């Protein structure tokens, strides 16, 4: 065998490793996995591995020639230093992946553990030409008395790897744990093989394979990188921020929600909207770059972007929030369209201002819908209400507790007939005084309960209470036509709704004309089969329906017409605007249109005598509002109606 063939044979594993790592680097560059600390550390591991491979090949060359002592020392020292660099680099990678830098930095023993073993080995290896403690080269290369230090040095790193991986096993998930552990295990096996069969130079190849396994199992760009914008996507944001909260790390987040993104997307079409997102991402990257600090950029979805800054970069985060607002609130030309974005920007310090991951995600989802657009950066301390989100996050427990302890109550708000000059009905409204959170507004309660599915229990409770009331003797004295009960969208879509309602009415012997069910405009615009079946079944059974909150949503008129509606309730926000001349025209014509369609009209939110007169003169049939009474408990409601009846009779 020629000398060259012998060298190639001996170094074949090294060369295979080199090829694997080369391909890995190319794939990382193509997959845009080159940004951020975790990726930098992973790349550093690959480069260190490649250098170790190259020098392992050179060792074979140097050992098989009559090389000078200098070269033998040089290649062996460089090889050992880069080979052992895998220990700390892999540990740094695990630390970065679990996002516990801030904890490690604060702990002296952990800092020592990170630095000391490799520093000692570095000293030993670098001074070997003088000490000859690691290896000697007199009469050819040979291991010396302290050679085992090369492997002993790896033990603290491998141990720490396993400890950190075990401690953060929940965050990492099964796939990542397997990949990360496989790296340490593979290197361990290779070391054992190398010790037992020194001619098999498999260590660097094992490193290459283990890096490949980490790349497949941990560094999965398709999980984390948005292919259109090149930014990290929602899954990465969720993964990173969950770790942040769990590890007690502090961060500053700039949240950008483009409030009118859905409208713009409809206007400019799919392809242009992707270009728009790309241009926004590019501008955010420019802003991040100009601030010269490490900041993570994410694109979640539906025009929502996030910039996450470290704790110490609060001033940079403040500047970024201002830049972002100023950059996007300007009218701009885009692909021939004149665009007017409505950027909502919130600056949040976590966990000080937003205390949990769940609340952060819930708040970030729709803060742009809940606050008026001002064109100014909003501070989380001003716009985030911790109580609302605590309630949202614990709604199931709150509802269970309320049902158990009987702390729900049904209040009634009287409804006045302008034609008959008396109260003819009432709306049933849920009330909850929770022992921990105090009064919980129905809007928050209902929205959260709809999301969690608990709305059905609330709905059943309210309906049963109303039926009990209607079947009672005291109700009969009130001479009311019916009670209005609210149904939310989720309730309407429940296949058991109609049967449940009819069964409860039967149980309390309540006639169908004593109940009027209110559905909201949003529910009316759904064309769900279950909902239509429910409404038709109830309508056939003789129940009537009201369309609630008319004038607040985008009603699909065709759909509204096709529903079995008896009453339309004009929303408070609609009637509040009566002094606006244009709105007055809309109101007059709406009332006329509904009357022509033989619908009855309830005006909600009437607070003044002037409003009562205005809407009575418009020939609206019913009036409901604080002017007459706020929603009150059953006992007060009974008293109120009786005293009103007495006043009329006098
Ligand atoms: P809604 O059905 O439109 O009920 C009318 C709301 O307007 C009630 O708020 C009532 O207290 C309030 N209101 C009545 N008159 C006036 C007024 O003159 N001025 C002002 N400022 N407000 C007035 P509430 O009780 O807070 O309920 C809010 C919403 O929560 C309801 O709006 C309804 O959509 C929902 N909701 C309440 N109870 C239930 C329930 O039992 N089931 C379902 N599914 N939803 C409910
Ligand atoms: Mg209502
Ligand atoms: Mg309403």
Which features characterize this protein?
single chain; 650 residues; alpha/beta; eight-stranded mixed beta barrel; six-stranded mixed beta sheet; 32 helices; 20 strands; binds ligand C2E; binds magnesium ion
Could you give a quick summary of the protein structure above?
The chain has 650 residues and is of the alpha/beta class. Helix content is 60%, strand content 16%.
Order of neighbouring strands in the sheet with most strands: 11-12-14-15-16-17-18-19
The chain-level mean pLDDT equals: 89
Over the alpha carbons, how many angstroms does the gyration radius reach? Answer: 35 Å
Could you estimate the helical fraction of the residues in percent?
Answer: 55-70%
Alpha carbon gap, first and last residue: 124 Å
How many β-strand runs?
Answer: 20
Query: What are the segments in which pLDDT stays under 50 over at least 5 consecutive residues?
Result: none
Number of helices: 32
How would a crystallographer describe the biggest sheet? Answer: 8 strands, mixed, barrel
Structural overview:
Helix content is 60%, strand content 16%. It has 650 residues and is an alpha/beta fold. The strands form 4 sheets. It has an 8-stranded mixed beta barrel with strand order 11-12-14-15-16-17-18-19, surrounded by 5 helices. The protein has a 6-stranded mixed sheet with strand order 3-5-6-4-9-10, with helices on both faces. The chain has a two-stranded antiparallel sheet with strand order 1-2. The mean pLDDT is 89. The chain binds ligand C2E and magnesium ion (MG) (2 copies).
């Amino acid at each position: 065998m020629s000398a060259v063939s012998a060298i190639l044979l001996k170094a074949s594993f090294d060369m295979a490793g080199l090829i694997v790592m080369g391909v890995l680097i190319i794939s990382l560059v193509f997959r845009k996995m080159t940004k951020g600390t975790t990726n930098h550390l992973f790349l550093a591991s690959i480069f260190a591995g490649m250098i170790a491979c190259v020098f392992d090949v050179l060792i074979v060359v140097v050992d098989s020639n009559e090389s000078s002592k200098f070269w033998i020392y040089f290649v062996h020292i460089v090889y050992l230093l880069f080979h052992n660099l895998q220990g700390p680099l892999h540990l740094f990678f695990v630390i970065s992946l679990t996002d516990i830098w801030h904890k490690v930095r604060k702990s002296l023993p952990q800092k020592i553990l990170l630095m000391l073993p490799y520093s000692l080995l570095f000293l030993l290896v670098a001074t070997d030409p003088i000490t000859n403690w690691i290896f000697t080269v007199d009469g050819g290369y040979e291991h010396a008395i302290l050679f085992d230090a090369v492997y002993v040095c790896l033990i603290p790193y491998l141990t720490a790897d396993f400890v950190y991986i075990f401690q953060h096993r929940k965050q990492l998930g099964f796939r990542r744990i397997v990949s990360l552990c496989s790296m340490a295990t593979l290197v361990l096996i290779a070391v054992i093989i190398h010790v037992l069969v020194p001619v098999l130079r498999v260590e660097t190849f094992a490193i290459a394979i283990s890096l490949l396994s980490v790349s497949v199992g941990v560094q999965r760009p398709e999980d984390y990188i948005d292919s259109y914008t090149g930014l990290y996507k929602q899954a990465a944001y969720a993964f990173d921020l969950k770790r942040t909260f769990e590890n007690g790390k502090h961060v500053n987040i700039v949240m950008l929600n483009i409030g009118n993104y859905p409208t713009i997307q409809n206007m400019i079409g799919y392809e242009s909207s992707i270009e728009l997102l790309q241009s926004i991402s590019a501008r955010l990257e420019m802003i991040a770059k100009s601030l010269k600090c490490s900041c993570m950029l994410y694109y979640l979805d539906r025009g929502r972007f996030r910039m996450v800054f470290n704790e110490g970069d609060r001033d940079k985060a403040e500047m970024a929030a201002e830049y972002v607002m100023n950059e996007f609130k300007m009218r701009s030309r885009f692909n021939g369209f004149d665009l007017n974005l409505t950027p909502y920007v919130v600056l949040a310090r976590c966990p000080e201002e937003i205390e949990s991951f769940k609340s952060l995600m819930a708040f970030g989802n729709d803060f742009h819908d809940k606050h008026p657009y001002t064109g100014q950066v909003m501070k989380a301390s001003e716009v985030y209400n911790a109580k609302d989100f605590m309630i949202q996050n614990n709604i199931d427990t709150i509802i269970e507790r309320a049902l158990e302890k009987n702390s729900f109550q049904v209040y009634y708000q009287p409804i006045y007939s302008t034609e008959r000059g008396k109260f003819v009905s009432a709306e049933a409204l849920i009330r909850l005084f929770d022992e921990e959170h105090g009064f919980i507004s129905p809007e928050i309660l209902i929205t959260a309960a709809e999301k969690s599915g608990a709305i059905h229990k609330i709905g059943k409770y309210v309906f049963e209470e109303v039926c009990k009331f209607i079947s009672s003797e005291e109700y009969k004295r009130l001479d009311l036509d019916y009670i209005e009960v609210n149904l939310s969208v989720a309730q309407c879509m429940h296949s058991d709704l109609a049967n449940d309602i009819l069964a409860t009415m039967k149980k309390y012997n309540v006639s169908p004309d004593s109940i009027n069910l209110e559905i909201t405009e949003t529910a009316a615009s759904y064309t769900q089969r279950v909902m239509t079946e429910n409404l038709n079944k109830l309508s056939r059974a003789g129940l009537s329906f009201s369309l609630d909150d008319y004038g607040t949503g985008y009603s699909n008129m065709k759909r509204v017409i096709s529903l079995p509606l008896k009453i339309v309730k004009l929303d408070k926000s609609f009637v509040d605007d009566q002094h606006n001349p244009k709105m007055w025209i809309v109101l007059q014509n709406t009332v006329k249109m509904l009357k022509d369609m033989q619908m009855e009209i309830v005006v909600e939110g009437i607070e003044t005598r002037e409003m009562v007169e205005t809407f009575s003169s418009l020939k609206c049939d019913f009036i409901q509002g604080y002017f007459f009474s706020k929603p009150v408990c059953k006992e007060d409601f009974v008293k109120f109606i009786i005293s009103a009846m007495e006043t009329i009779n006098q």
